Amino acid sequence: MPLVHAVNVTKSFHHNEVLKGIDLDVERGQVVCLLGPSGSGKTTFLRCINQLESIDGGRIWVDDKLMGYDERNGKLYRLKNKEIAAQRREIGMVFQRFNLFPHMTALENIIEAPLQVRREAKKAARERAMKLLDRVGLADRCDAYPAQLSGGQQQRVAIARALAMQPKLMLFDEPTSALDPELVGEVLAVMRELALEGMTMIVVTHEMSFAREVADTVVFMDAGVVVESGPPKDVIGNPQHPRTQAFLARLRSEHEHL
Amino acid sequence: MPLVHAVNVTKSFHHNEVLKGIDLDVERGQVVCLLGPSGSGKTTFLRCINQLESIDGGRIWVDDKLMGYDERNGKLYRLKNKEIAAQRREIGMVFQRFNLFPHMTALENIIEAPLQVRREAKKAARERAMKLLDRVGLADRCDAYPAQLSGGQQQRVAIARALAMQPKLMLFDEPTSALDPELVGEVLAVMRELALEGMTMIVVTHEMSFAREVADTVVFMDAGVVVESGPPKDVIGNPQHPRTQAFLARLRSEHEHL
Amino acid sequence: MTSDAQSRPQDAVAGRPGRIDAVPVRHPGRWVAIGVIAVLVGMLVHLLVTNKAFDWSFVFQAMNQQPVISGFLKGTLLVTALSMVVGVGGGVLLAVMRLSDNPILSGVSWVFTWFFRSIPRYILLFSMGTLGILFPQGLSFGVPFDWKLMEWFGLSGDLRFLNLDANQVFTGLVAGVIGLGLSEAAYMAEIARAGMLSVDKGQAEAAQALGMSSGKVMRRVVLPQAMRVIVPPTGNETIAMLKDTSLLVAVPVIGELFYQLQSIGTTYYKTFPIAVAATLYYLAATSVLMIGQYFLERHFGRGFGTKAPRGPRAARPAGAGGA
Amino acid sequence: MTSDAQSRPQDAVAGRPGRIDAVPVRHPGRWVAIGVIAVLVGMLVHLLVTNKAFDWSFVFQAMNQQPVISGFLKGTLLVTALSMVVGVGGGVLLAVMRLSDNPILSGVSWVFTWFFRSIPRYILLFSMGTLGILFPQGLSFGVPFDWKLMEWFGLSGDLRFLNLDANQVFTGLVAGVIGLGLSEAAYMAEIARAGMLSVDKGQAEAAQALGMSSGKVMRRVVLPQAMRVIVPPTGNETIAMLKDTSLLVAVPVIGELFYQLQSIGTTYYKTFPIAVAATLYYLAATSVLMIGQYFLERHFGRGFGTKAPRGPRAARPAGAGGA
Amino acid sequence: AAGCGSNSLENGGSSSPSSGPSSAPSSGPASADAELAAALPAKIKAAGKIVVGTDATYRPNEFLQGGKTVVGMDVDLFNAVAQKFGVTVEWQPATFNTIITGVQGGKYDVGVSSFTINAERKKQVNMVSYFSAGTLWATAKGNPKGVKADQACGKTVSVQTGTTQQLDDLPIRQKKCKDAGQPPIKELPRDKQDQATADLVSGKSDAMLADSPVVLDAIKQTNGQLEQLGEIYDAAPYGYVIPKADTQFAQAVTKALQELNADGTYKSILQKWNNDSGAITDYAVNP
Ligand SMILES: Nc1ncnc2c1ncn2[C@@H]1O[C@H](COP(=O)(O)OP(=O)(O)OP(=O)(O)O)[C@@H](O)[C@H]1O
Ligand SMILES: Nc1ncnc2c1ncn2[C@@H]1O[C@H](COP(=O)(O)OP(=O)(O)OP(=O)(O)O)[C@@H](O)[C@H]1O
Ligand SMILES: [Mg+2]
Ligand SMILES: [Mg+2]
């Protein structure tokens, strides 16, 4: 059974139905890239997976656990905040705008959750954090505050922070779209390596080269439904659906002269 | 004589020399694209042109006026704030983060400077503003506040706002780099049109297709000096300097799979 | 959690799951808190209704005295309004001085703030009253604007309420308003400074790039946005000022709510009902102020998405302008 | 401007222009302002030195009285500290309640704020004092924590200053601290709410996504960042509280700076020097508080680029995290 | 111009003697005296009025009526004095502890606010004696707690803060209680005299001590809820506060008082306020 198993997920804001029945399975070790125009519901879907938004219908299982609810005797019981927090620990999330804690150094950002949530020993947490920082190439910047780091560096720290909780699943929401074109590469490199090491990942991205190279499956969403999905060479290389074709054409047009 | 004539411009922050003697001439009606890695001083140079930063050495003339100073009897006199403000009116500037006034609607943003600075009649200013909004394709959104507009729409309003002062020169500082890839096109289209109409423009950008297509001259800066400049087909198509080559290679690597 | 794992495959087989209609989480602790609060409120109401110390009929009679009403309108409300005008104006000026490049101006602003925040208002008002007698001319020269205001007030006072003679209004109330205004300016300076610092630098630069003068930039772009941050603490300050008008007796000015009520208390030896009457007046004024604050916040919050946006599409986080 | 156009070509021909060594702009208006300020300061100093009303030797004698010093330390400083602890704690709690989804909690918080912002501190303290006499047991049960604090204080009082008998300390000061603390909590609630709202929502979400409980999110992520916005107005509040301790006389508590000074003033009939002495004490305390505020602001401003960044490269505006 | 709100309260109040507008001389046989007028300080002469600072919260000597008019025994008496000088009085309400400073600084020409004459005050300003007040105790009607002034140990006693009763009288009694091994007097000090009286009326305290005119008036005002306890003791003169520089004027004021005493105005004013027990005849500067 897949690590992520989402069935018929629906979600509305007020009367605006943003997700209209999304199905998605992600096997352990797989990388899924989510594409789609702005407003298609990609971010909302990621947030539903780790319960930053509660869903209106359908079910999401991660690692065989029903997210956000307990099902007993055919009835759903909303989990307590504490239990939801526990479920979230298994899932790392990286945001478009990094969302590092600005009042903590890079190192403090990384050890915060292990210390506060998993109650690890300070020394052990620091050692592991330094290893993670080293892995994302920032061991020398451990004492820098986020404001003293470039965007690419901040995003790499954010990835390390998520990894520090040793999650089973990583969610990335446009992790490079707030970065200078030059700094995109360093973040994608870290993500590529993570994929190679077998981390299960769902990545919302506009970086086609990354999707082509790293993704096992590419999912194209539009207006709250999955329009097309499959291996990257099909969905990106030879899209079937006219909406996918139009979207990719629009993206391409700006870069063809390079 | 060129519309912009900058000679040996130097600028330091504390002891950090950011511009190390920049020369640049922009003829009337020309479009100059400024390329260069992060931190090379592109933004700082644009800001020096309209005196948002005062320069430490060299001179900048725009439309035959020495920016920021009055030279009499071989001596330089710093201009009063009022006089500097008057000089700035001839120069429109578009920022990376749009910087629309969030407490004013799109229309109010545009008529603010004509009303307050040029003391135009309200009716005439509104009419001209509506024409400008129409030109950037946003006539129907005139009453929207910036927060209700997408990034691309905000940037188009920002361009209309700058144009409302009927500047002789337009400065663009990475106008599309804070935008979703999908929204980049709509802003570049407006800029392309502006160039066709003969506006003199200096554009800092990472959008190579735009530079190739629209620029008369491409200037590559690095570490506060102009490394290479010339027509786009030379600088982008066939860069001579190793630093230019490296930079372009880095940019390209992320998009080659598209 | 093992039950989940078992229930899932069956569930998945049994067709696509539909709407979620879950039993919400119970918050027993929260209900206990609400219960405790309810009991406390009940006790308070019981106390209010049954305790004779309140003497409600006396409270309302006292509140309905003509000098009390006029003291509330003129001494309390008007002085609050005028002092806050002086205070907000002075505070903004001090904040601009404090943020200026000129070290002398910035230093003077700092010293002013330091001194006037330290001096108790009661002592300040007493000194103002004394100064007023010693140099009446000097003072009137120093703050022509306030005199203008008071002149206007003097006129309106003559037209509407006849119970304070002009001489007393001009010496006492002017001194009171100046004293309270100067003190308030020191507090407002900090608030205004925080507000101005909260406005993104890009906003001022965009305005400068359009050729606006520094005054225009401040008035049209920076201050309107700073108001979002300035208004809530200013609400606090105004409400505090409302009650600090009772210090006017140090000037001395007695045409003010609290003094008038107390003088009734002196006659009838009913201290507590007098306190209740004062509280009711201040509650009413505070309520009006809080409503005003709500509308001010809404006004200066326009375009900042504090309410649901009216446009068809909400802003993207990354795309929100310099806000 | 035509002269520029003429000078330019010659200049350009005459070799590359070098460093700019320009004559700066003169600001005559600014110098006039500085002059006026200097004259005013001069007048003030002249007044301070020459006017006999100040009676400096008496001022310092009065300041050096043992009851005055002890009143300053215990009545003024300690009550300020304790009241602000109650006020800040209560204010944060009220702000959290106000922002909660539960309409009852949020409503209770609103009513509390509305009521306690409206009631003058003098009247509140007067009522607290009365309550204290009516139900001394009841009060001690209601706030065990404060009693603990006061017990500790009572001990230290016995050890260090012997001039207030324990009975008075326990009834009066507790009532005073509770009254001032409740009132302060109402003001702090607004301040804390504004602070919490100023923290980017993405911060709380990032913390939640890491599996932190809502309490942890608040304590470790939201509040530390909110402090940047909370500290400056809290400085204002603390300074105001410092002086509002003089209202303790309504409880009644008389072991407090202003009352003690006034009683000396009453004995020697020197009101003005007494006012000066009080002001000097408050100036000193305010100065210390302002220094403390500076360091607090610096502490909570860490990572926000309010000081020059220590790293080799400053943040890019577009890249600054959720700040 | 009537505005809203009533001008009087229904309950109580009927017994408060009314007086004319504060700035007008009270009616009576007193009339101006040219010799006295010559002794007026130049400032008063020029203005034609005496500016008087008073704390109008001390019933019955000086208090506020109708929200702006200062009335009371001190007021009537000093108005009569001013009439002898042929000038009017402008009564300016102030807080008690700012009045002497105000007189010294020229803010007020005279301070009239039940100032007890003592050595410290005489050092600062000229004091002209015009009345003798002492300390008096009061309890609830029938003295239910059985309080006696000399045996108040363990009882709750109301007193206004900062008064001579609180600062001088009670400490001596406390010491006696302590020496006798009895429980101390429970002092209930109040910021304002009316609060202290209210505490006694409401039963929060068992007894009250204050200046005799105040206690006598409170007994009268509360319509039989309170009663006098023992007799007036520690009598001391009240004095008008006049700047040290105006000694000549102070002397003239004593003369005016003597004239008022001679023509009966003095007595009738004291009687009007139920205070003729405090009448004196030896008016003097700094007695
Ligand atoms: N909290 C919210 N309240 C109301 N509407 C929301 C909310 N969050 C998202 N939406 C709406 O839901 C829709 C989908 O938004 P979402 O952010 O999921 O899109 P997206 O695919 O991530 O787009 P983008 O590429 O722009 O990030 C949009 O129309 C958006 O306006
Ligand atoms: N106000 C300032 N104070 C101190 N240093 C500054 C300031 N503004 C810019 N710098 C520094 O000047 C250098 C050049 O900055 P600038 O913003 O001009 O680069 P850029 O070429 O626009 O780069 P980017 O592509 O990142 O926008 C950088 O090292 C930057 O840190
Ligand atoms: Mg998104
Ligand atoms: Mg730049």
UniProtKB/TrEMBL annotation, chains A, B:
<keyword id="KW-0547">Nucleotide-binding</keyword>
<keyword id="KW-1003">Cell membrane</keyword>
<dbReference type="InterPro" id="IPR003593">
    <property type="entry name" value="AAA+_ATPase"/>
</dbReference>
<protein>
    <submittedName>
        <fullName>Amino acid ABC transporter ATP-binding protein</fullName>
    </submittedName>
</protein>
<keyword id="KW-0472">Membrane</keyword>
<dbReference type="InterPro" id="IPR017871">
    <property type="entry name" value="ABC_transporter-like_CS"/>
</dbReference>
<keyword id="KW-0067">ATP-binding</keyword>
<dbReference type="GO" id="GO:0005524">
    <property type="term" value="F:ATP binding"/>
</dbReference>
<dbReference type="InterPro" id="IPR027417">
    <property type="entry name" value="P-loop_NTPase"/>
</dbReference>
<dbReference type="InterPro" id="IPR030679">
    <property type="entry name" value="ABC_ATPase_HisP-typ"/>
</dbReference>
<comment type="similarity">
    <text>Belongs to the ABC transporter superfamily.</text>
</comment>
<keyword id="KW-0813">Transport</keyword>
<dbReference type="Pfam" id="PF00005">
    <property type="entry name" value="ABC_tran"/>
</dbReference>
<keyword id="KW-0029">Amino-acid transport</keyword>
<dbReference type="InterPro" id="IPR050086">
    <property type="entry name" value="MetN_ABC_transporter-like"/>
</dbReference>
<feature type="domain" description="ABC transporter">
    <location>
        <begin position="4"/>
        <end position="248"/>
    </location>
</feature>
<dbReference type="InterPro" id="IPR003439">
    <property type="entry name" value="ABC_transporter-like_ATP-bd"/>
</dbReference>
TrEMBL record, chains C, D:
<comment type="similarity">
    <text>Belongs to the binding-protein-dependent transport system permease family.</text>
</comment>
<feature type="transmembrane region" description="Helical">
    <location>
        <begin position="169"/>
        <end position="189"/>
    </location>
</feature>
<feature type="transmembrane region" description="Helical">
    <location>
        <begin position="122"/>
        <end position="143"/>
    </location>
</feature>
<dbReference type="InterPro" id="IPR000515">
    <property type="entry name" value="MetI-like"/>
</dbReference>
<feature type="domain" description="ABC transmembrane type-1">
    <location>
        <begin position="73"/>
        <end position="293"/>
    </location>
</feature>
<dbReference type="InterPro" id="IPR035906">
    <property type="entry name" value="MetI-like_sf"/>
</dbReference>
<dbReference type="InterPro" id="IPR043429">
    <property type="entry name" value="ArtM/GltK/GlnP/TcyL/YhdX-like"/>
</dbReference>
<feature type="transmembrane region" description="Helical">
    <location>
        <begin position="274"/>
        <end position="296"/>
    </location>
</feature>
<keyword id="KW-0813">Transport</keyword>
<protein>
    <submittedName>
        <fullName>Amino acid ABC transporter permease</fullName>
    </submittedName>
</protein>
<keyword id="KW-0029">Amino-acid transport</keyword>
<keyword id="KW-0472">Membrane</keyword>
<keyword id="KW-1133">Transmembrane helix</keyword>
<feature type="transmembrane region" description="Helical">
    <location>
        <begin position="31"/>
        <end position="49"/>
    </location>
</feature>
<feature type="transmembrane region" description="Helical">
    <location>
        <begin position="69"/>
        <end position="96"/>
    </location>
</feature>
<dbReference type="Pfam" id="PF00528">
    <property type="entry name" value="BPD_transp_1"/>
</dbReference>
<keyword id="KW-0812">Transmembrane</keyword>
